[in-house]
Amino acid sequence: MFIVGLTGGLATGKSTVLSIFRDNGIAVIDADEVARKVLEPGTKAWKEVKNYFGDSVLHPDGKINRLKLGELIFDDIEKRRKLNAITHPRIQRAMMLMALKYFFSAHKYVVMEVPLLFETGKMLNFMHKIITVICEDHQQLERLCKRSDFSEKVAKKRINTQMPLEQKVANSHFVINNSGDIENTRNQTLGIIKVLSRSKFTWYFRAIFGIAFLSFIFGVTHIAVKLFYNET
C-alpha cells in the first residue's frame, strides 16, 4: 500500500475532495478528525492543553474551543510551539496507525489529508504522491470568512501564515482546482483516482514485502532445523 498526501490552503476545499475519495471507496484519513479525537475530554493531550492554557479554551461541555485556542496561539509563537508539541506527535502517530490498519486490510492506497504537509515537513517522506487543492484567491478569502466568521483582515492574516499555494503546487504530483462547481471538482478527483488505481507501485511493494517475509520464514525454519539436530 502507498500513501497519498492531500493538502492545500485554508478553505480551498480539501474536505470536499476527501469526501469524493471516500464516496468512491478509497480509504481516507482525515487529520482534522484525528485531531478532534486526540483532544477529546479526558485524553492526555486534553489534560495537557487544559493545564497549560486554562479553562478559557474549553466549551461548557469540556470540549476544546478550537476558535478560542486558535486566537490564543496565533500571535504567540511560544504558545503555538507548546500546542504543537502536545498535539502533533500524537496526531501523527494516530494517523500512521490508521494507515497500518488499512495496509493489513489490503487497501491499495490511502489518501491522508494533512493541511500543513509542506509547512511541517514531518510526513513528506511517507507520501508516494501529493495532491494539492486550490481555488481562486477571492474564493478562498470569502469561504474562510464565511466558515469561521472571520473579518477579512483576520482571514487574510491566517491565510498568509501558510505556505503560498503556488509553492505547494510546484511540489505536488496532482492539482485539483476547486474554483468551479462540485461536478468539476468531482471529475478532476475521479481522474486522479483512475491514475492512482493503475499504479504498479503497490504490486512492486507487495513483491518486496513477500520476498522479505519468505526469507524471514526460511531463515527461522533453517535455524529451527539446526537447533533440532543440535539438540538431538
Account of the 3D structure:
The structure is a single chain. With 232 residues, the chain is an alpha/beta fold. The chain contains eleven helices and five strands; from the N terminus they run E-H-E-H-H-H-H-E-H-E-H-H-H-E-H-H. It has helices spanning 14-23, 31-38, 44-53, 66-74, 77-104, 117-120, 137-148, 152-160, 165-170, 182-197, 201-231; strands at residues 2-8, 27-30, 109-113, 129-134, 174-177. A five-stranded parallel sheet has the order 2-3-1-4-5, with helices on both faces. Helix 1 (14-23) packs across helix 10 (182-197) and helix 2 (31-38) crosses helix 5. The longest helix has 31 residues, at 201-231. The protein starts with a strand and ends with a helix. Residues 216-232 have low confidence and may be disordered.
What would you say about this model in short?
The chain has eleven helices and five strands. It has 232 residues and is an alpha/beta fold.
- Read across the widest sheet, the strand sequence of neighbours is 2-3-1-4-5
Distance between the termini: 44 Å
Element order: H for helix, E for strand: EHEHHHHEHEHHHEHH
- Average residue-wise pLDDT: 88
Number of helices: 11
Q: Major β-sheet, in short?
A: 5 strands, parallel
**Poorly predicted ranges:** 216-232
- Percentage of β-strand residues: 5-15%
What's the assembly state of these chains? single chain
**Morphology call:** globular
* Radius of gyration (Å): 22 Å
Number of DSSP-assigned strands? 5
Residues in helices, as a percent range: 55-70%
